Amino acid sequence: MTYHPRGPHRKPGRIGQTGREKVVRDLISSLLMIQFVRFLGVGGFATVLYYAVFISLLDMAGVQYLIASIAAFVPSFTFNFWMSKVWVFRNPDKRAVYRQLVWFTVKHLVAFGLNALFLYILVEWRLSPLPAQLTLTAVYAAVSYFVSRWIFRK
């Protein structure tokens, strides 16, 4: 048995960390994890909604891939905004809706513009539209959480 200054029965922790600090840190960590899981769930459903519309228009209706992408964006965006505000980030501030909607729209329009540009480039480089869009979606999801946390901050 090795000697530990906090006692042999305790696991080493941060030096000077009180029990209350650890509880608060663990609680914040748990809440952020729950928030992130909710974010992934809402984003996942919005993505499924996007692809359902995108694939339906692309394959079933024969719509050109960029137009299909634009049409798929609208219902996905609407669902994503309201669920992010109300459920993921639990921001009840009704006065902030306009500011949040503007920034959420800016975030999505910038992402959408970059998505359309890179979708065009990837398809022109002979990558099929669906794998190209899946690749772009993964890249977008990587940064979206942090931008959304800023948008829906309290």
Explained architecture:
This protein is mainly alpha-helical. The protein has one domain. The chain has 4 helices and no strands. The chain has helices at 19-60, 65-88, 97-124, 129-151. α1 packs antiparallel against α4, α2 (65-88) packs antiparallel against α3 and α3 runs antiparallel to α4. The protein is elongated, with a radius of gyration of 21 Å. The N and C termini lie far apart (48 Å). The model has no long low-confidence stretch (mean pLDDT 86).
Q: How would the blueprint of this fold be written?
A:
Elements (H helix, E strand, L loop, with lengths): L18 H42 L4 H24 L8 H28 L4 H23 L3
List keywords for this structure.
single chain; mainly alpha; 0% strand; elongated
What is the terminal separation in angstroms? Answer: 48 Å
Order of helices and strands: HHHH
**How many H/I helical runs?**
4
Which structural class matches the secondary elements? mainly alpha
Low-confidence stretches: none
Helix content: over 70%
Shape: elongated
Strand percentage:
under 5%
Strand tally, please?
A: 0
Mean pLDDT level: 86
Largest sheet: none
Task: Write a concise synopsis of the structure shown.
The chain is mainly α and 154 residues long.
